[in-house]
Fold SatD family protein.
Amino acid sequence: MVKRVPVAVILDLVDSRAIPERSSMQVRIEEALNAVNDRTRPVEPLAATVGDEFQAVYATVADALEATLVARLSMPEPVDCRFGIGRGEIRSVGTGLTGIIQDGPGWWSAREAIDEAHQRADTRVPSLRSWFRDAEPGTAAGTAVLEASVNAYLLSRDHVVSQMSGRERRLALGTWLGRSQASMAKAEQISQSAVSQSIRRSGVTALQAGIQSLRDAELRDADLRDAGVRDAGLRDAEAPC
């Protein structure tokens, strides 16, 4: 079986110095991210590192995209967050006061990605909150296509989420987590019809479909790679000595 390349994620808080009641809000943010960890599939869960930064590791790009979307939808108002997503090798290089110290192309590319997201939001695309970099060795064309495809999704995703009101984000999150429209209507004290209209208008179902499409493609790619390894092994076994 071909070993999957891990995906590192760096999350930081947008305009963290302007967040009111920072200490109490930090508790709410960490509670929200703990819930994200319970609802997604991290290899290493989102955890606070230094200042306003959190880090996590995922097995696939699709898993990282799902977790970052759920994380942004889960943020308590008025908090917003930014993500750098980097695919590449991750190495343990020692142990510090907070645990294992990691390094490697996965983290380097995630750092480059979050810097790029910040720069683009400041200069060209104000709604942008995420960017992706692929550090896995391969063909230049293959890397460029993957980066372009994922970032095209992120540009659209972040625009959609940035246009949502607080209620629309809560309903989008509830939809993502499989909550019934009746339970969401009761929680928001609105009609079930209003919930349905909000979900259709928000675009969350399109965001779900985009991640599922990528997840399906990653599974097909993994199957093809595994088949290639098996075929190569059979050819080696059948080769004359």
